[in-house]
Design goal:
Elements (H helix, E strand, L loop, with lengths): L2 E5 L1 H6 L1 H12 L6 H11 L6 E6 L5 E9 L5 H14 L1 H8 L2 E9 L8 H10 L6 E7 L4 H8 L3 E7 L8 E7 L28
Parallel strand pairs: 4-5
Antiparallel strand pairs: 1-2, 2-3, 3-4, 5-7, 6-7
Bound molecules: coenzyme A.
C-alpha cells in the first residue's frame, strides 16, 4: 500500500538524497549531471509556495515524488518559458499562462511502481487546493507516459519541440487551468474549464 504525504521544504532538503535516488531510477540521467541537479532541487525548495508530495511505502520509503512552487520573474525556467511563449504567442498569452502559475518542477515514480496510479495521484494532489490560476510544466516532447498523463488531466501544449538554452533535448511546455478536471474525464486534450482570460485555448505548439 502506497500513501501520499505532504513534505515541507525543510524535510525535502534533508531528504534530497532519497529524492535524487527516485529521480535517477525514473530518468536515468548522465551521472555527471547529478551534482548540479541536486543543487537545483535544493534551490527550488526556497521558492515561494513550495509544495512536495512523497508517495511512500508504509515503512516511509519514498517510491515517488512530485514538487512545485509559485513561479515568479527571476526564476530561470519561468523567465526562459515566459520569453519563449511571448515570442511565439504574444505577451498576453505568456502572462495568461505564467502570471499566476504553479510550476510543477518534478514528478517521478520509481519504475518498480509504474502503472499503479501513483503518478496520476501525485499530479492531482499537487494541483488540488492551489490558489494559482494555472499549472505549467515542461516534459520531454515524446509519446511518454508523462505526456499521456498530463493530457488526460487537462494540460494542453503551449510550446512543442522547445530546446532550453544550453540544452539539446526537445521539450513540450504544457499548461492547464486549475482546478484540474480530475479523474472522471481522462483521455482527452480538452482543458475542461477553459483557458485563463488572456491565454489561448491551445497554442498549437
Ligand atoms: C510519468 C510517471 C510519473 C507516471 O507515473 P505512474 O505512476 O506510472 O503513472 P500512472 O500509473 O498514474 O499512469 C498514468 C497514465 O500513464 C499511462 N502510461 C503508462 N505507461 C505509459 C507509456 N509507456 N506510454 C503511454 N502511456 C503510459 C497509464 O496507462 C496511465 O494512463 P491511463 O490512466 O489513461 O491508463 C512515470 O512514468 C515516470 O516516473 N516516468 C519517468 C519520469 C518522468 O518522465 N517524469 C515526468 C517528468 S515531466
Amino acid at each position: 500500500m502506497i500513501g501520499l504525504r505532504r513534505v515541507g521544504p525543510d524535510e525535502f532538503t534533508t531528504r534530497l538524497d532519497a529524492v535524487l535516488e527516485i529521480y535517477i531510477a525514473a530518468m536515468d540521467p548522465p551521472a555527471d549531471q547529478l551534482p548540479g541537479r541536486k543543487t537545483i532541487m535544493g534551490n527550488h525548495a526556497l521558492h515561494p509556495g513550495f509544495t512536495c508530495l512523497f508517495a511512500e511505502r508504509p515503512d516511509g520509503t519514498p517510491v515517488g515524488l512530485a514538487y512545485g512552487f509559485h513561479g515568479v520573474p527571476g526564476q530561470w525556467w519561468h523567465d526562459v518559458v515566459h520569453r519563449a511563449i511571448a515570442e511565439r504567442n504574444g505577451e498576453g498569452s505568456a502572462r495568461g499562462w505564467l502570471g499566476d502559475a504553479l510550476e510543477l518542477a518534478e514528478i517521478h515514480v520509481h519504475p518498480d511502481h509504474h502503472g499503479k496510479g501513483i503518478g496520476r495521484a501525485l499530479v492531482m494532489g499537487m494541483c488540488a487546493g492551489r490558489p494559482e490560476r494555472t499549472a505549467v510544466l515542461s516534459t520531454r516532447d515524446q509519446p511518454t507516459a508523462a505526456r499521456h498523463l498530463y493530457r488526460s488531466v487537462g494540460f494542453v501544449d503551449l510550446l512543442t519541440q522547445f530546446v532550453f538554452p544550453g540544452g539539446y533535448e526537445r521539450y513540450a511546455i504544457l499548461g492547464a487551468v486549475l482546478p484540474l478536471k480530475g479523474w472522471a474525464r481522462r483521455g482527452t486534450a480538452d482543458s475542461g474549464s477553459g483557458p485563463p482570460s488572456t491565454a489561448p485555448s491551445h497554442s498549437g505548439g
